[in-house]
Amino acid sequence: MAATKPKASAPIPGKMSPHIWFYSFVLIIQYGMQPLISKRLTSREVIVTSSVLTCEVAKVVFAIILMAKDGSLKKLAKEWTLMGSLAACGLPATIYALQNILLQISYRNLDSLTLSMLNQTKIFFTALFTFIILRQRQSIQQIGALFLLIMAAVLLSIGEGSSKSSSSGDPEQILFYGIIPVLVASVLSGLASALCQWASQVKKHSAHLMTVEMSIVGSLCLLASTSKSPDGEAIRRHGFFYGWTPPTLIPVVTNALGGILVGLITSLAGGVTKGFVVVSALLVTAMLQFLFEGKSPTTYSLMALPLVISSVSIYQKYPYRLRNKEA
């Protein structure tokens, strides 16, 4: 009797190979540096939509180069189908576009501190939808590590927003146009991240191909919004590259490279790992602000540091172990 071929299994949450550690480390540095690079090299006159669209184009170019290098570009012409692409990437790309719209609504009606804290709940929703869609379980210790990470993210958000004034608008407007949209955006972020992980691990969609497809869909959604948005009006009035200088390309390129790494990490290690990377990057930002701008880390940032270290250590050390039934 021929031996049956074992099914390919998804990566065990908490188990990371050396190259995933490397990708995560590089992404932490990129995420941590990005705010400072953007602040120093991007003029206030640059239209946000033009920067975002250029970044998406750069991601597509980088992803295609990488696919050509690993040989997957040749297979693409034979295997790629529009329906397969829409099934794998259409829904998460649309969800991410809707999430960005909801966050823009919340930005106008919530102070940055409240918004940042509520937005950290996406880590929990990512773990929840990963379990629902992929049946990827977390151990009790990993669940505790996730809550430690959320606590660290909240402390970092308090440190970032403590010096900023809170909004004092109409309570109903704050609830319906501030709190609810950001919570829905967090749910959508968790769902989209789990769907991307499903597409890469179950449907075997390559990370680079997903980057190309989602960038294209996201760009089309953004282009459609320019017909009514203030940015669209600014582009029609001043031109697409209004306010750009040669250094403006640097943060665009680094952001695009970060997007490539996000796709790789989500594909290889899952959306929850990406959440750990993002929160860890906040600590790098605080450190770089101290080194280059003389801005001392807040007490909240110092309190968050051991929480991040502990959560990462616990999450890696205690993965969920399937209890095999005795024959």
From TrEMBL:
It is a multi-pass membrane protein. GO terms for cellular component: Golgi membrane. InterPro entries: EmrE-like, Nuc_sug_transpt. The chain crosses the membrane at residues 20-37, 49-68, 80-101, 113-134, 143-162, 174-195, 207-227, 247-268, 275-292, 298-315. SUPFAM superfamilies: Multidrug resistance efflux transporter EmrE (SSF103481). It is found in: Membrane. Coiled coil: none annotated. Signal peptide: none annotated. One of its GO terms (molecular function) is pyrimidine nucleotide-sugar transmembrane transporter activity. Pfam families: Nuc_sug_transp. Keywords: Membrane, Transmembrane, Transmembrane helix. Belongs to the nucleotide-sugar transporter family. CMP-Sialate:CMP antiporter (TC 2.A.7.12) subfamily. PANTHER family: NUCLEOTIDE-SUGAR TRANSMEMBRANE TRANSPORTER. This is CMP-sialic acid transporter 5. It comes from Hibiscus syriacus (Rose of Sharon).
